[in-house]
Amino acid sequence: MPHSPTPSQAFSPVERDAVYRAIFERRDMRHFAGGAVAPEVMQRLLTAAHHAPSVGFMQPWRFLRVASPALRRALQALVEQERVLTGHALGQREDAFMRLKVEGLMDAAEVWVVALADGRERHVFGRRTLPQMDLASVACAIQNLWLAARAEGLGMGWVSMFDPVAVASLLGMPAGAEPVALLCIGPVHHFYEEPMLQQQRWAQRSALDNMLFEDAWGQPLGQRETVAG
User: Coil, helix or strand for 179?
Assistant: First the structure.
């Protein structure tokens, strides 16, 4: 196979490797070391999030900082409530699940709630048949923030174990707004060498080849028989 030339717009090897390093070393953190995040660093993280792609350029993300310790405790109580219910729903895996640490809300330097904005029904561009693309866009913003945090040497954990109606009520969100993530951000003693749930033998990363198809669902990539002309 002939060697493809490097596109002229490509990053330098050092810059490219830094991008891939952030991707491969990003972890969903649950253990934090307290401390603080400098305001200018937090601003960089939020700016990175705000530069995520969004369907129809709708920018459906909203970020709410939780500065009050009392509000953090209230959020933690809602997470704990859902953690217990999730454990019950897991049946035979309940005991193993209940041993897992699922949040760092009281230990992280920063806690931010990421929500879908209200008034999203007026955004039709790219969403007429796939209305969930607003959520996909918010996920892109969260991933941008996550990678930027790793590059800054900060841990981040995405907590999704809560009743969205209860969180929306607690934080006074308007009708139509919907919380999708509680983000714990801050210094950590160390990053997990592999995803925590993999370390705890809860699950393993699937082989990439099992996720790749070509031309038809279930047809392995690159193995379609060539039809002679």
Answer: strand
